[in-house]
Amino acid sequence: MGAHPRGARAPGLWPLRAPPLLLLLLLPVTSASEAEHRLFERLFEDYNEIIRPVANVSDPVIIQFEVSMSQLVKVDEVNQIMETNLWLKQIWNDYKLKWNPSDYDGAEFMRVPAQKIWKPDIVLYNNAVGDFQVDDKTKALLKYTGEVTWIPPAIFKSSCKIDVTYFPFDYQNCTMKFGSWSYDKAKIDLVLIGSSMNLKDYWESGEWAIIKAPGYKHDIKYNCCEEIYPDITYSLYIRRLPLFYTINLIIPCLLISFLTVLVFYLPSDCGEKVTLCISVLLSLTVFLLVITETIPSTSLVIPLIGEYLLFTMIFVTLSIVITVFVLNVHYRTPTTHTMPMWVKTIFLNFLPRVMFMTRPASNEGNTQKPRPFYSAELSNLNCFSRPEYKGCKEGYPCQNGMCDYCHHHRIKISNFSANLTRSSSSESLNAMLPLSALSPEIKEAIQSVKYIAENMKAQNEAKEVTLIPQGTSLDLPPGSDLFQVPFACCGEGRREASGSPVNGHLLFSALHLSL
């Protein structure tokens, strides 16, 4: 071990000199702590936290009360519960907790656990879930004058009657009633601080906006007791922010409802009309289920949006019924159904006038009533194939479509049948019928018949000839017409052409093919 040089500081000597300096710095703190310790021991030496802090038993304890809203956590419409985060400010005077600051190094305030002092048992009367009384784990602030300030935070779930008539554009009024549960007005009297709830530290909610929250004091006598009990009630007026429901609920419902109208613009041949209606109905049903989970289950009122969805579902159901009826009528044909007279009256006479619809005008501008002879003349062609012939005059077709007896062996049918058998050209038909006197529907039918006749004559000419059985010889004079062949109406339905039997039905089948 070598000796330390002269003037050098030996290791460990500096820490031995440090404690005196630290003691000088810690003297005020130690003195203050000792003062608070002595003050605490003196205040709670004979203190009883159960006894009301009044010098005279008949005197009430005046409690100054104020509620500060920290957050509106949630409004449960289904269970009708409003959850809030509040600060309950309570101020009263306790004569047992006074001291002289000069005796305790000038200490004017002191914070003590709330379990050590007397506290008013103020609870939320309309609490729905949880404890009625606030937690006393927070500390209270004592002032040398005896004033006690206690601000415990609490999360309350209060009952609130929810009116969802105008959901989601609704306003709600939820009340919160605070008062002492054990002490009447003679023991505790409440004084409201301010005129409304303190919203300085309020955290804005994304669903609700607080319009106002006034406070009122009431002195009520209940049926259970003879004493009068004071309370302070806050009325919380809140408004729902409808942006979320507008974008996710209302606008989709409107668009889906608009699709119902578009169903009637689809052509009747489209097979998706009923499918679209049913899809719209299912979509509205899903939205109705979502609303049912949101709003309370009550029969007192029906939400406006629920009424709208119900009306829309009825409208969609009716549209499905009408669409089925339209499709049924569209696929009916003259061969399977006959249009009733009431349908013609309603849909051809009444509804067009109501809807300001007019019948399309003719291209030639001629509105002359068409001649109803087509069906009569065509029916006359069919009568020759029947065994029973009713009387007809030479050169005139039958009036009733049936022949009683043919008095002549030669029937002269007008240019209609001759031209129709000989050729189905446009010139012969136009010369035969004044097309300008026909309605547009008949004209379209004639043009279709002409087109079919021309194509069938050009493509199936050989097929028309084969309608006459093989081995049958027809010795017709040059320039003679097919319908001018002499035949005898013997009731057997046969013709004789130069002594050769020909089936009359086959000849008229060729006539129909040319049509």
UniProtKB/TrEMBL annotation:
One Pfam short name: Neur_chan_LBD
Transmembrane segments: 243-267, 274-296, 308-331
InterPro entries associated with the record: Neur_chan_lig-bd, Neur_chan_lig-bd_sf, Neur_channel, Neuro-gated_channel_TM_sf, Neuro_actylchol_rec, Neurotrans-gated_channel_TM, Neurotransmitter_ion_chnl_CS, Nicotinic_acetylcholine_rcpt
Principal location class: membrane
Subcellular location: Synaptic cell membrane
Single annotated GO MF: acetylcholine receptor activity
Membrane-topology annotation of the record: Multi-pass membrane protein
Ranges where the Neurotransmitter-gated ion-channel transmembrane domain occurs: 249-465
A GO-annotated cellular component: cation channel complex
UniProt keyword annotations, A-Z: Cell membrane, Disulfide bond, Glycoprotein, Ion channel, Ion transport, Ligand-gated ion channel, Membrane, Receptor, Signal, Synapse, Transmembrane, Transmembrane helix, Transport
First and last residue of the signal peptide: 1-32
PROSITE patterns on file: NEUROTR_ION_CHANNEL
Family that this chain belongs to: Belongs to the ligand-gated ion channel (TC 1.A.9) family.
Protein name (Swiss-Prot/TrEMBL): Cholinergic receptor nicotinic alpha 3 subunit
Organism name: Equus caballus
